[in-house]
Amino acid sequence: MMANVTQNRPLSPHLQIYKLIPTMAMSIVHRITGGALYFGTLLVALWLIAAASGSSAFDYVSWIYGSIIGQLVLFGYTWALVHHMVGGFRHFMWDLGYGFEKSFSTMLAKATVAISVAVTIVLWIIAHIVW
């Protein structure tokens, strides 16, 4: 007869046990935006390849990027880039040994969202004014 080896050991906590807090959410979003940047880099590469391939290819890619869907994807890419950068600054501050207090790290996590959204909107407003 085989004994149940886990019977006397406590179970590991799972996501149902943890409460989603801002620092945890920003950690998850930081990882997601990092992965999304790989896809966004392909968009930049496609744009550069189209520019090098001639005016018809560049016009076609510009038409795609200029469509409503293309603009939404580029806006999302811009936000992911900015959000990941702001999150990187937060991690850099932690690497220097600052910002570990619970209230400050929670405020910083919330500020990461606000700053990334604000900077993204400002960048897009400037781009549309210049364009």
TrEMBL record:
This is Succinate dehydrogenase cytochrome b556 subunit. It is found in: Membrane. It comes from the Bacteria. The chain crosses the membrane at residues 36-58, 64-86, 107-130. It is a multi-pass membrane protein. Gene3D superfamilies: Fumarate reductase/succinate dehydrogenase, transmembrane subunit. Its cofactor is heme. Membrane-anchoring subunit of succinate dehydrogenase (SDH).
